[in-house]
Structures are given as structure tokens and as C-alpha cells.
Amino acid sequence: MTPEDEARKKIDELLTKAGWVVQNRRQLNLGASLGVAVREFPTNNGEADYMLFVARKAVGVIEAKPGGTTLSGVADQSGKYMTGASENIPTIDDNLPFAYESTGTETFFRDERDPDVRSRRLFAFHRPETLQEWVSDKKTLRARLKNLPELETKGLRECQVEAIINLEKSFAKDKPRALIQMATGSGKTYTAVTFVYRLLKYAKAKRVLFLVDRGNLARQAVKEFQQYVVPHDGRKFTELYNVQHLQSPNIDPVSKVCVGTIQRMYSILSGKKDIDDELEEESLFQKPPDFAYDSEVVVEYNGNVPIEDFDFIITDECHRSIYNLWRQVLEYFDAHLIGLTATPAKQTIGFFNSNLVMEYPHERAVADGINVGYDVYRIKTQIGEEGNTIKAGTTIDVRDRQTRQLRWEELEEDLTYKPDELDRSVVTPDQIRTVIKVYKNWLVDIFPDRETIPKTLVFAKDDNHAEEIVHIIREVFGKGNEFCKKITYRSGEKTDDLIQSFRNSYFPRIAVTVDMISTGTDIKPLECLIFMRDVKSRVYFEQMKGRGTRTISTTDLKSVTPDAEYKNRFVIFDAVGVTENVKTDSRTLERKPFVSFKDLLEKAALGTIDEDGLVSLAGRLSKFERSLTPEDKQQIEKKTGGVTLKQVANEILDVVDPDIPAKEVQQKEVLKYFDNPDFRQLLLDIKRKNEIVIDLSPDQPLSGGKPEPVQPSQVVESFEDYIKKHQDEITALQILFSKPYKKRVVTYQQIQDLAEQLTHANVSFQNETLWNAYRNLYKAKVRNAKPDRVLTNIVSLVRFAVDKSHDLEPFPTTVEERYQIWLKDQHKGGMDFSEEQMEWLTMIKDFVAEKGGFPTSAEASAGREDDLVEVFQLDPKMRDRGGYIKAQQVFGTQLQPIVQELNQYLFAE
């Protein structure tokens, strides 16, 4: 069979699965089905490989090419058949609208009626019913997306308006993927429901898929749709459109929105009848490496779920899912992809083609009063920092991880453990007790007017650790079971009810979790987070930290914490150094989450393991290495000839590294380790070891009896070192450090980027923390003890860090003073502004004071006038007054010169 014959065979199969009847020209029977694909059909411009008929009329063509052919240049060939259909055959139009180019493994499609005709990649072919529906539409979906009506902004926050406007601009440009970054608590889901409503009502979208990574987040999203009141109507969203919570393998044909976990959707496409509900309740962030279905599954075309079932797919905080196995779900459908995240990793941005349509970080949300800031208190204990040694001859408790049954054992030799082994292979109850005592004692100083313990969430390392913490908290506080609850997958109570009680009721005051409340779950009254586990991922840490950022009204707060006056911050108690460690955006090595460790070892032994399997194996061996005892390591090295598991993992990664040559030879070498059945069995036996040592040694705090936040001198020194070291790397710092002064204009985007990078570098580099630190060290030079929370204060802080000869004052104060001087100078120079012009000048001044500078006319003349237009459009005051167009009418040709001059004058020192 020739390569072209093989391609046509695959194309025939795909067409058949999609509901087409495939015929040869001689066997033409257009009545055989709604959709008929006729091979080698003659046209005036040659023979089309396939002519597609729907309801007896030609609607499109398929150009078939051998596997491996690049298809970008084939569109011209299919195009000539579309315009050359014979007058003797019935057609839907003079020029056929639909064209496919396919090798059977890769397929591209275009609709000639789209405003900007562009081919797009498909997983398979559309069904005949879909093409029939499309040809009856006066406008295509992409044409409708170009003409959405103006957004009704009532009831929306400024950041939500900005996100929706920018997203719809992206749709109008036919960008297939878009990413929205909005800080935790800023209303991402409400934003999504708003634009979903607009897509259904105005773009006439067929159906929208809303994907989350955990079951309780799906239930939360469904509630958001149910409670949403549509603009100008007064009815609820669900009164107009059916919203289906995916809990079975079937998609309701009348549903307009489907909400579910990406795990559920994967199982539906894979043809699995159902999945265990527990699998939907575990976050993808914490999916264990050896988690597996019965066997590995690859998504193939599923006739019950055609590729056109969804026009839009929204992924809400599905970080890992979009790189590995779950990617198949997203790329199966012929749909626009929209990502929602509070903390985008570099890989997330890359997946969405770097089309980040909205950036609204935590710093901006705090400045806008949507989120609250936070303080960090570090709790150190001797064992927590140094580990411990249990002497030989000591009788110790040993607990089975799974049954929790205790036995006693006398140590034959000293047992030394390090801090990172705490609460994993060794539990030291007094270390936990010491941390909780310090937390309890510090509450008096941190919340001096409170008798009620603030709502507190504790992050534990695993379920056993959480169990220990719960019992110790109840003991330390002398309270009953209701006071502190464990909220994990093994709580023994319904987790949704526990979360609801923690959110809305007086009890529990303290909740202990591993992962259940780490991402996405709203607990607005939460005022304290205790980290008793470390987290290396910046993305995951930001998600966990985000649980405390929510604002709440005084009335709602008092309903659960009666003696609280307001929530203006939250507090992080760091017992493990999580706020001090470097966080990364690293890509997970787990690419085969549904293949067990045993199966990976067997595939390695048989030599049938693929690249993704090798990467997963390397990742699991690396994780395994960290939990090994010295005895385990010794046994392993006996089997490998002195090579450690870490070295084996690195050798595997070298095999899949594209920059390292001779990979086939290396793969054979590295897989030799797994030829030894004793080595494979040893790994499995060690993995099954399920015992935890309990150390009853007493612990003591290394921190003092009073809370000790980071010292002001340390904050200032670290900040000034950082900005000097990075002054050539961060655009805003380059500008603020540069000369001449009059060119030191920093735009609002550059200020946002600076604030975000500072906070990621060090949690103490927040405006409020920095201001307090400088106030403590330079009281005579700091003019305002508690400035308003505006992001632009970072400009004043950087300037003061560089040059302390002037006072440190809030940036809006500086801008206001310079604005009044500028107006006087203009008046002296004979320039008198009208009342309307003064109103616009005041709005421009306020924008600079609160957000940062406008793009200058020099930038605009270099092709960036759109940036200036966008600023006028995004600022609510200026937008409501008519935006850039109105400003041009008011100032005429002087608009850009005035903006440039005012910019430079307000920013000058």
C-alpha cells in the first residue's frame, strides 16, 4: 500500500466515524445518507480527492496527502476545487464554503465565509449535521465574534471589565487561545460566567465546556452559574440556558454549558463508563505519581462526543493538566481555549500561545481593595530546624501508615533523622505541639482585641500528619472535637459539609487540610494560614496563600468571628521556611499519571517504554530517592553496581534530552538496570513499606516568646540589594535608575510587572511592608505613616531607596503637588484650559497617580498609538466620558503633546 493509499484509508475511517458515507464516483448515491463523501470527484479544475455532499448538495472538498506532508501549502490546491465545481452538480453556493486538507493523522480545515479565512488544525472531521447547520447560518461564529455589542459594565469590577473587553478583542482577531490572569478573590468565575452569557446570547455559541480539576470546584462553578442574574433581564442564567454538571458519561444534548472535572471529561472521551468519584475530589496539583487507571488510555475519535460539541472550552486553574495527558481533552475539540488562572507558570503562558489578554496580580487586587495583604511570622523549633537523634536502646512507637496500628520496638542503634523527614518517616508530636503553642501565644499580640480564635487553616504534609495535628490542636487549646476538624479525603465526614461549616459557622475555628482547600475554595473569613509543609512550586504556593486573600464585609465576618471588627490582612505562620525557599515554575515530570509504577518498571524491562514513560519513570525515581533510608540506598546500590537512584533518573533524562546525541545507545544502557528482576522487586518492596517512627523527644521553640516578623533593617537591605542587582533586567527599574530625569516615565504595565517580580522575589517586598520598614528606620523622612494602597507607591519607594536626600511620600501626593505647579506654569505661559479640558486633565493626573504613566507620543509615533487609545478605554472614568475619541475632540492635535508633557512633568523628581 502506497503512503497515499494509507492516508486515504485513515481518512475513510475518520469520515465514517463522523457519520459520513464514503463512496467511489461510480457508486454515487447521494440518497444513501445525509452526508456523502465521494472519492475522486471531477471538477472544472481537476479531480478532487473527496467531494462532500450534505442533503444532496456539494458543500466542500477534502484534499488528501501522504503521511508526513506539511499541509500549510496545500490550501491553494483544495481552493481551486472549491471554485471549480461543475455546473452539472447541485451546490450550496457558487463557491463551496468548506475545505479540508488531511493526511489521516493531521487535518486542517477552513471556512471560506470567515472574515479572515485561516486554516485551523482539527482532531477529526466535522459531522454532516454540523456543516448543514453552519451553511444555514447567515454569519459564521468568527464573524459574529467580530461584532459583539458593547459590554454592560454595571455590577462589574474594573478588572472584570478589562478582562472581558480584552478577551473579546482577542476573539475578534481570531486568536484560538487566550489566558486571563486574575488574582485570587478578584472574581474570575463571575467574569467567566459573564462572558459565557455573552458568547451564548450574542455569538450564538453552540455549547461551552467549563473545566476544573476537582469535584468541589465544579459544584462551586455550577452555583455561580445558578446565581448569576443576566443584564437587562432580571432572570437567572439557568432560567435561560441549561447548565449540566457532568457526573455521568453522557452529555445532555440540550445543555448550553457543561461543568466538570478534566478527569471526568477525559474518561468520557476515552470511552470509560464511569470513574471513581474519589478521583474527581483530588486536585491535579497533588495527584500521586503512582495513581493509575487499569491501563493506559489514548483518546481516539468518539462518535458520541463529536469534535464540534463545544465552541469554547474554559480551563479554571488546571495547571498541570494542559501539558500532559489532559492536553488530549483540550485539543480534541474544535474550540477556542480560554484559561483562567491567578498564578500562571511559564508553561501555561506558552500553551496559550503567549496570548495573555489580562494581567491582574495580587498586588493590584490589594491596591484596589479586592484582596487583603498579609504578614509573615516565622516559627522555628529546634527539631524542625535541626532534626534529632534517638539513642540506641530507646523503645519507640512504630505505626502502620494504613491501619494506624501501633507496635513497640527497641532501637538497636542510634536513629538520626533530618528536618525534611519530619512527619513523613518520623513523627515528633512535641514538634507539632511546640509550633501550635507558639501560634497560640502569638495570637494575643497579633490580634490584641480578640478572644475568639481567628479562622485558621493548617496545611499538613499528608493525611497521617493532618491527623496528628488535629489531636494536638484540640489538646493545646483545651477544646472539643468541633473546635478543630480535618478536611481531607479521609475525613470520615462529607467534605462539602465540612467546608460549608468552616466558611459559614462559628465552628470549626481551625481546619487542617492537605490539599482539599489548597486551591479554588473560597473561605472569606479566613485570617490565618499555618504552613507545616513546604511547597517548591511558586504556582501552587500562590494558590495556597490565596486562600487567605479574600475580603469580607464586617457583618459577614462578625457572623462567624463575633469580636472581629474587620479583615484588613491575613497572617501566614511559616513553620517550615516555605516563604524563604526559592519557588520554581518547573514542569512536572509526570506524563503518565495513569500508569502504575509497577507497569513502568515492566515496560522498561521489556524495552517498550516510550519517551513520556521514561520521563515519568525518572520523575518517580527522583521522588522515591528522597524517601529512602540509608539501608534502602545501600540495597539499591548493590543491585545497580554503586549507582544511586538519582543518577539513574538523570541518565534517563539524558536519554530524552534533545540536545544530547546518540540517544538510542544511551537508552539501551540505562534500561539495563531494569533487566534485573531483583532490582525491580526491591523497588516495589521498598515502596510498599508503610511504617512511621514516632519520636517522643521534647522540642522547644527557637523563635522568642513574642512574634518576630522580619526586621525592618533586613527588609530594606534586601530590597535595596535586589533593585540594584536587577536594575538592568526589569524595565521599570531601568527607567527609574536612568537619566535624564525628565524621561523617567514608567507605564502602568511596567509598574505591574515590577510589583509582581518583587513579590515573587520576596514576600516582604510588598508596598505596605516596605513602607513600614522605611518608616521605622527613617521616621523623619517618611511623610505618611499609612498611605493609600496604590500600586504606584513602588515608584516612590524605589526612588527613596536610590536617593534618601528627599522625603519618602506617597506617589499620588507627589503627583498632586507637581500637577498644581504645572497648572500654574501653564497659566503663566498664557495657556488657559476650558472647564471640560480641566476635567480631562484631572482624570489624566488621577490615572498617572494611581496606575502609572501613559505611553508617550514618541512611542505612539513608533506605531504604538493603540496603547494610548487602550489606556483611555480601560480607565473607567475616561471610558465613561467617551474615551480617546472624546479626548481628541476636546484637545484636538494637542492631546498627545499634552499627555507627553504632563507625563514627564508628573514623573520628574
UniProtKB/TrEMBL annotation:
InterPro entries: EcoEI_R_C_dom, Helicase/UvrB_N, Helicase_ATP-bd, Helicase_C-like, Helicase_Restrict-Modif_Enz, P-loop_NTPase. GO terms for molecular function: ATP binding; DNA binding; hydrolase activity. Residues 169-362 form the Helicase ATP-binding domain. Transmembrane segments: none annotated. Pfam families: EcoEI_R_C, Helicase_C, ResIII. CDD domains: DEXHc_RE_I_III_res, SF2_C_EcoAI-like. GO terms for cellular component: cytosol. GO terms for biological process: DNA modification. Coiled coil: none annotated. Gene3D superfamilies: 3.90.1570.30, P-loop containing nucleotide triphosphate hydrolases. PANTHER family: ATP-DEPENDENT HELICASE IRC3-RELATED (PTHR47396:SF1), TYPE I RESTRICTION ENZYME ECOKI R PROTEIN (PTHR47396). This is Type I site-specific deoxyribonuclease. It comes from Candidatus Roizmanbacteria bacterium GW2011_GWA2_37_7. The lineage of its organism: Bacteria, Candidatus Roizmaniibacteriota.
